[in-house]
Amino acid sequence: MSYGFYIYGILTLPAPQNLNLEGLDRQPVQIQILDGFGVIYSEAQQERYLASRRNLLSHEKVLEEIMQGGDVYDGLRQRYLLPVQFGLLVSSWETVSQQLIRPHQEELTQLLAKLSGCREVSVKVFWDIEAEIQGLLAEHPNLKTERDKLVGQPLSMERVIQIGQTIEQGMSDRKQSIIDVFQGTLNSIAIEVVENTPQMDTMIYNSAYLIPWEAESQFSEHVEALDRQFENRLRIRYNNFTAPYNFARLQLTSSN
Known about the structure:
It is a single chain. By secondary structure, the chain is an alpha+beta fold. The chain is built from eight helices and eleven strands. Helices cover 41% and strands 25% of the residues. The strands form three sheets. Strands 1, 2, 3, 6 and 7 form a five-stranded antiparallel beta sheet that branches. Helix 4 (129-139) packs across helix 6 (157-186) and helix 6 (157-186) packs antiparallel against helix 7 (216-229). Mean pLDDT is 85; it is low at 71-77.
């Protein structure tokens, strides 16, 4: 039993042929031509898809494989597309045409043109909080002395709070100094930058970059240089290829 169509994204024509890709529920991925665009889809086997790790990875894999299987661009293959948020189901193609393509045709065209010849990469930076506190105290011996007095000594609550705030400000300054280095090194390579909220306490920087397709090797070299600059102080997670969610994501809702 089919529950309509599961949508992955939209791309420009001519659409790829003979994709030979499996999407959610191992259904073949296909392209539907609508109003001058190609809609990437597979037949839905469920009324609603849970955002499980497996399903999310399947959704992302379809987009990445289609992007990597595009036209040759400076020796590499690439195809630009607009990724659709996970979980979009539609009951008919007429719904897609009437509610998405036709009302937003100009916007879709502009977004796809913006992505032409570009790719999204991302950088996440992590640090060791305890190690950074120890580093801060080592650089400010007076602060360490005051902090050590808290152990086994009666201090006023005001003093305890003051020392805590001083350490907090020092950590904030250390964090910002690292972020400034990353921004100064990487932002100039990018066409556009989106800084996202860190996802955990140990993550201090979480940024996505839209860069020219051919600039990835240069960008990668800068990331590696940053890794060497900070030695073992930081852990850097670099994703050199992903669907451009941060720069042209379509926020749609299911028609079911």
